[in-house]
Automatic annotation (TrEMBL), chain A:
Residues 1-26 form the signal peptide. Belongs to the bacterial solute-binding protein 5 family. It comes from Humitalea rosea. Transmembrane segments: none annotated. This is Peptide/nickel transport system substrate-binding protein. PANTHER family: D,D-DIPEPTIDE-BINDING PERIPLASMIC PROTEIN DDPA-RELATED, PERIPLASMIC BINDING COMPONENT OF ABC TRANSPORTER. It is found in: Periplasm.
UniProtKB/TrEMBL annotation, chain B:
This is Peptide/nickel transport system permease protein. Belongs to the binding-protein-dependent transport system permease family. GO terms for biological process: transmembrane transport. Keywords: Cell membrane, Membrane, Transmembrane, Transmembrane helix, Transport. It comes from the Bacteria. The lineage of its organism: Bacteria, Pseudomonadati, Pseudomonadota, Alphaproteobacteria, Acetobacterales. It is found in: Cell membrane.
Length: 528, 313
């Protein structure tokens, strides 16, 4: 028996030795391949159909946009060569630049642009608003298209440069109804989606588009030359954060898109890893009240919410590292953006529990159960909800914490039932990117009652102020309009911003050229 | 034997029917709305309602059930709500990693656990027995993910011998396939091995006290022959039963192990589907797993007669 055991042992050792002897380098990524641990599993390929971030990032890889925001948050031409504006400022005419072609080799025509814009405008809030202001969008010839406005509108270029992608698709694809997902992923962007290598739940592969002609200007935020410097981008979905960190440490991945913030000190100690700040604006956490039911159908109760805890209390728990958050940001439209203002926030810069208690009393609150939805599987929202609960209890609120997973919360918050019949009073969510910085694109700021996001903020006066701001074409004249609507928002609270923070990405030290673009983009990146 | 197998196979039909009804009702009655998840965080109420209508989720429960069963009877498990692809295809894509991990885990566990259990029983009460049983308790008690992280730190990060995560198909690269399976197999196998070693020891202890073992030893048979041919063979029915029952344990373990090692198998598919309330995928996977479980139990039952001639069907 001992002889047999010895033989088996030797054989096992030999097999293990053979397996382990294969160089680990063979598993690590090649110089021409960028391997990225992405934050979510890409399942939906249509960036118009869904608002999912992962699909948006997929969109930026394979599609191009008419305009792109630069780092000063100014719209810059991307697929467009130049535009003209009629004297009455109602007719915008755009000419496409030379050399634009789809992945199938067909040239990009104005008809493709018009079809893509029409489809996008049916889904996107900012696109819908432009649609309301315009009377016709037409192809003039193969390289020229026009937008005719009913009345002056100050955000035409901002809308076309919108961060959540006015992606241009071939006309045959863009003709798909906007409530139906596209299946054809032909774009004209710097990378080509490799459908045959797509393994949902595991891997997505993109190859460099050899026919793509980047603009001459250097890449700047989401504008300028999109130069693909690697042949291949591989997205790996590694759901376990510890495993993703280990894979980055071992060199199996080059780029970790959304490392948990409590990993930052660990990564900072590793000389093989760099942290890159790609999002100058960062993300905004927000508290949404249900406007349909007492006490938060009364403005005084919503005002009380702003006094139960300070932003720093939330950020210290959610983020931890003071370098990554702002202790105070009074702007609904992101501190540091072109629409940064804290006008109206003055009464709410410090918490005041006694005042909160008084406001709640004035709103008719008398110890009734307040239902707070707590997403236990979203660490940041979960932590912020705990701070909120503590603040509410300090203010004498009878809090009913209902813990659930995020999927359940998404469906629960969509229910318009009373809180004691399956509805709710409060939940916390977040938003990020350039869109948050624009009053017409910030979806949680939309206060159009039944047409607003869950919580159903209803302030048509505020909505009118947003329309006035959007209508104004003179940037200097727009500023007072912005401050007017901002002051109004701090009075009626479509939502309460509970802090602004930034999420770095982590890359191996041999990765260069990561662009601060407000979100991960994969052009301009070199692997040395 | 033939009529028995036929009877057992036919008996799976009502079992699968009950599973189908329970799964359908549990999913529909549990909170969560795939339309809201699918629409995304920024979607309007109209978007969500439109998706719900398109997916048929606004229809009465009975109508949805009839539609699903109708498709099922034609062998169609439906389409994933998110991927818009047939569930059967999604399951088939994920079978290889899960099957590979399950088989390698079984082999690993049986190869080590049965000899360990036999030796522990043979040297019952000695330091060898106590060491083996101590390690078994430890392996059974430590959570699977913790074992996984420990192995990753040791073998992948410190020793730089094996990859941290991922899966390579056997058909693409056999060596890569083996390399990617080592750590997940050890992770999942340790728990299973501990269970099997303890059962083997307990069963062997009973058998080793039987008269026929004393007779075998009195005849002067070599100890290995007594242990393997006489004792182990007679102890094998409970061991095989445990191996069969262990497949349920394995299914649970696969879910965790696949997540820790980013293996795109059935376990990961299940988790993702549950978190997103992708009803057709959850229903399809559970039905498939239940079917496999029923068939494995049948196979285990059939091996009894091979191991013990006294058992006849």
């Amino acid at each position: 028996m001992s002889r047999i055991t010895r033989r088996i042992g030797l054989a096992a050792a030999a097999v293990f030795g053979l397996i382990a002897a294969q160089p680990v380098a063979a598993q690590t990524s090649r110089r021409d391949t960028l391997r990225v641990a992405v934050h979510a599993n890409l399942q939906i390929l249509d960036p118009v159909w869904t608002t999912g971030l992962i699909t948006l990032r997929h969109g930026y890889l394979i599609y191009d946009t008419l305009y792109g925001m630069n780092s000063q948050f100014e719209p810059r031409p991307q697929m467009v060569d130049h535009h003209t504006l009629s004297d009455d400022r109602l007719l915008w005419t755009f000419t496409l630049r030379d050399g634009l072609a789809f992945h199938d080799g067909q040239p990009v025509r104005a008809a493709d642009v018009v079809a893509s814009l029409r489809r996008w405008m049916q889904r996107d809030p900012m696109g819908q608003r432009l649609s309301e202001f315009s009377s016709a969008i037409e192809a003039v010839d193969d390289k020229t298209f026009s937008i005719r406005l009913r009345e002056r509108y100050g955000l035409v270029l901002e809308t076309l440069a919108k961060g959540t992608g006015t992606f241009i698709m071939p006309e045959r694809v863009a003709s798909t109804p906007s409530n139906t997902q596209i299946t054809d992923t032909t774009g004209s962007g710097p990378f080509i989606f490799q459908r045959d290598e797509w393994r949902p739940g595991s891997r997505v592969v993109y190859r460099r588009n050899p026919a793509y002609q980047p603009r001459e200007e250097p890449a700047d935020f989401l504008s300028g030359g999109k130069r693909a410097l690697v042949e291949r981008v591989e997205w790996l979905y590694i759901p376990d954060n510890n495993t993703a960190l280990a894979a980055l440490n071992a060199g199996e991945i080059d780029y970790y898109e959304a490392p948990p913030l409590d990993f930052i000190p660990l990564m900072e100690r590793n000389p093989d890893i760099k942290l890159e700040m790609i999002d100058p604006l960062g993300s905004q956490l927000l508290l949404r009240a249900n406007w349909l039911y007492p006490p938060f159908n009364d403005v005084r109760a919503r005002q009380a919410l702003a006094l139960v805890a300070r932003q720093e209390d939330y950020m210290r728990v959610v983020v931890g590292n003071p370098r990554l958050y702002q202790a105070w940001c009074g702007a609904f439209f992101q501190c540091g953006s072109s629409n940064d203002t804290d006008v109206g926030s003055e009464p709410y810069r410090q918490p005041n529990t006694a005042r909160a208690r008084e406001l709640l009393r004035q709103a008719g609150y008398n110890g009734e159960r307040i239902v707070v939805l707590q997403p236990s599987d979203r660490p940041q929202y979960n932590a912020a909800t705990m701070v909120l609960i503590q603040g509410l209890r300090r203010a004498g609120v009878n809090v009913d914490v209902q813990s659930m997973d995020w999927s359940t919360l998404l469906s629960r918050r969509a229910r318009r039932d009373p809180p004691d019949a399956g509805g709710y009073h409060l939940f916390i969510t977040g938003q990020g990117g350039v869109d948050t910085a624009n009053p017409t694109a910030n979806t949680w700021f939309n206060s159009r009652c039944d047409r607003a996001n869950p919580g159903w903020a209803c302030d048509m006066e505020l909505d009118g102020m947003v329309a006035d701001w959007a209508r104004e074409t003179d940037p200097a004249a727009r500023r007072p309009l912005l401050e007017r609507l901002h002051r109004r928002a701090w009075e009626t609270f479509p939502y309460l911003s509970i802090g602004q923070f930034t999420q770095p990405v982590a890359v191996r030290s041999n990765i260069h050229g990561v662009l601060p673009a407000g979100q991960p983009v994969y052009w301009n990146i070199e692997k040395r | 034997m033939g009529p028995y197998i036929l009877r057992r196979v036919l008996a799976t039909i009502p079992v699968m029917g009950v599973v189908a009804v329970i799964v359908f009702l549990m999913l529909r009655l549990s909170p969560g709305d795939p339309a809201a998840i699918l629409a995304g965080d920024q979607a309007t109420m109209a978007d969500i309602a439109a998706i719900r209508e398109r997916l048929g989720l606004d229809q009465p429960l009975l109508h949805q059930f009839v539609v699903w069963v109708g498709e099922l009877l034609t062998g169609d498990l439906g389409k994933s709500i998110y991927l818009n692809r047939p569930v059967t295809g999604l399951i088939l894509e994920r079978v290889e990693p899960t099957l590979a991990l399950s088989i390698s885990t079984m082999i690993f566990a049986i190869l080590f656990a049965v000899p360990m259990g036999v030796v522990a029983a043979w040297r019952a009460g000695s330091w060898v027995d106590q060491t083996i049983m101590g390690l078994s308790v430890l392996a059974f008690s430590v959570p699977v993910f913790l074992i996984g992280y420990g192995l990753v730190i040791g073998f992948a990060l410190r020793l730089d011998l094996l990859p941290v995560q991922g899966f390579v198909s056997l058909w693409d690269n056999p060596v890569g396939f083996a390399r990617h399976l080592v750590l997940p197999t050890m992770t999942l196998g340790l728990v299973y091995m501990a269970l099997l070693a303890r059962i083997t020891r307990a069963t062997m202890l009973d058998v080793l006290n039987e008269d026929f073992i004393r007779t075998a030893r009195a005849k002067g048979l070599a100890e290995p022959r007594v242990l393997i041919l006489h004792a182990l063979k007679n102890a094998s029915v409970p061991i095989v039963t445990t191996i069969g029952l262990g497949i349920a344990l394995l299914i649970g373990g696969v879910v965790v192990t696949e997540s820790v090692f980013a293996i795109p198998g059935i376990g990961r598919l299940t988790i993702e589907a549950v978190l997103q309330r992708d009803y057709p995928v959850i229903q399809g996977v559970i039905l498939a797993v239940a079917g496999v479980y029923v068939l494995v139990n049948l196979a285990i039952d059939l091996t009894y007669s091979a191991l013990d001639p006294r058992i006849r069907f």
